[in-house]
Amino acid sequence: MKVYLSQIEYKYEVEKTFRLFLPFERYDFVDGPADSGDRAQLLNNGECYNVTVHYKNDMVFRTQKFSRDGEFSLTRCLFLALCDLTKYKPVWGMLTGVRPERLYRQNLQNIGEEQTDRLLLQDYMVTPERLELLKTVYKNEERIIGRSTPESVSLYISIPFCNGRCSYCSFVSESVENMGRLMEPYVDHLIKEIEYTAAKVKSLGLTVKTVYMGGGTPTSLNPKMLQEILSAVYKNFDLSQNLEVTVEAGRPDSITKEKLQAVKPYATRLCINPQTLNDEVLQNIGRRHTAKQFFDALKMAANLGFNNINADIIAGLPGDDFNSFQNTVDTLLSLNLSSVTVHTLSVKRAADYGKNMAENLSDTTQLMVDYARAKLTENGMQPYYLYRQSKTAQNLENVGYATPGNFCLYNVYIMDETHTVIGLGAGAVTKLKDPYGDKIERLPNFKFPYEYIDRFNTIIERKDKIGGFYNADH
Questions:
Q1: Of 125, 211, 108, 131, which is closest to residue 383 (Cα–Cα)?
Q2: Low-confidence residues of the chain: pLDDT under 50
Q3: How far is CA 290 from the centre of its chain?
Q4: To 5 degrees, how large is the angle CA 230–CA 415–CA 75?
Q5: Class of domain 145-461
Q6: 2-86: which CATH number, 2.160.10.10, 3.90.190.10, 3.55.40.20, 3.30.160.100?
Q7: 69 burial via Cβ count (<10 Å: 0-12, 13-18, 19+)
Q8: What is the pLDDT of residue 69?
Q9: What does the DSSP assignment read for 171-228?
Q10: Helix, coil or strand: residue 435
Q11: Which of 206, 324, 349, 444 is most exposed, with the fewest beta carbons within 10 Å of its own?
């Protein structure tokens, strides 16, 4: 789509607003009037904004008087025009950010609850249901954030290997079949990074609050490798203030009794993620396991004494319908899990589905997400963290639900940017957070295992910057 924008400084917000409605379009900002094909004109005539959009033989026009600031007035005018064009109004209204809870908190502190509610409901056009969800998440997050201190850090340990790639996935991971030979040297280098980083952290008087091992699929490693990595974390880092250690066991087809036994002495929380309990849908998305394998893995974990287990599911998967999704939610509730995370399908450019997935982002997805929320809360689980992604079905959200006492603290700390999160392993990013201010500095590791191994000295050099950050005056 060609877009003529008279105030090009608003390009970023304008494009984000377009993507709420037409996420797979390509937007070309042109210097002169866009006069053919799919096009839009966004003009400032001195008193108000005029927006005209032509799309697939339809045309809409909206005008908006100036209010607040120019950027808000323009994007509101465009938002309403696109609502008219598509006959669709997003439940999160004009909000385009990843962290709506942060916006809520900032406004709550500045203008109070009543005015914040009015701002979100009237100005940003968030639905009352989403505002209530936001307020509940805020209350639960505040309790978790309050447990962090200026000395707190969290660890993220990246295992960038998988037994196979799911079609919706955009994470950097290597198949065991293709890159299995790198596993052993990768683990050796990861342990060296753990040892080196732990010494830096200890010298600064920092303590680890939470640990999260994710991927990829950590259980693509063998039991010995899993034990060596987690043992190195416990041996080298100060865990006297540690509150949780999560291991994302992930795909049921990669889980064995021996692997669970290897992580049991270290993990306080386990994730076993079916995504759906419909075998046909699992096949559609390239998951090489069945619902039965999920039940078997869950039973294995319970028999070994894991009592804080999370399951991830995704609303909006291709081939899934409301009845199938309803069965997944109801079945998970019957298993007495401590937490369930409900994701909405997000189609990224790097995923195999790509643009062809537009047809699968159906209206049913919102019914699925709303059903999950109603049933999970009705059965004693509370929403405790929330985030959004671009190109998500119906611009919906991802929400973690858990029974009281079983919230994943790491999820909140990483999403809120409460304190420093140190990334270890390929693809991991260290986000250094000033404990007394808002300054954040990123230290990325190389993405691919072969890069991580070949350029390991550079990664170690980057870890030296942790000391410089904490010793600097912010």
A1: 131
A2: 350-352, 354-361
A3: 25
A4: 155
A5: alpha beta
A6: 3.30.160.100
A7: exposed
A8: 82
A9: S--EEHHHHGGGHHHHHHHHHHHHHHHHHHHHHTT-EEEEEEEEES-GGGS-HHHHHH
A10: coil
A11: 349
